[in-house]
Amino acid sequence: MQESLPLPDRPTLPLVPSDEMQCLPDEAYEGLAVRDATLIKHVERLEDIIKSTH
């Protein structure tokens, strides 16, 4: 029998206003956007795995 895993709370990430990001080159801004989207998808996948144990 598989034991249910607890679903941890997501961490609260700091928000960075867009006007503070305007000084970044386009490549850096795009890299951050891709990184954030990748991390969000990864967290969602891990949450789905944990929820499958319930």
Question: How would you describe this protein?
Answer:
This protein is 56% helix and 0% strand. With 54 residues, the protein is an all-alpha fold. It has a domain of 29 residues. The longest helix has 26 residues. The protein is elongated. The N and C termini lie close together (11 Å). The model has no long low-confidence stretch (mean pLDDT 92).
What is the helical fraction, as a range of percent? 55-70%
Q: What composes the largest sheet?
A: none
**Low-confidence parts, pLDDT < 50 over ≥5 residues?**
none
How is the quaternary structure best described? single chain
On the 0-100 scale, what is the average pLDDT? Answer: 92
Tell me the structural class.
mainly alpha
Give the end-to-end Cα distance, rounded to a whole number of Å: 11 Å
Radius of gyration, taken over Cα atoms and rounded to an integer in Å: 16 Å
Gross morphology is elongated
Strand content: under 5%
- Tally of DSSP β-strands: 0
How many helical elements?
Answer: 2
**Could you state the order of secondary-structure elements as H and E?**
HH
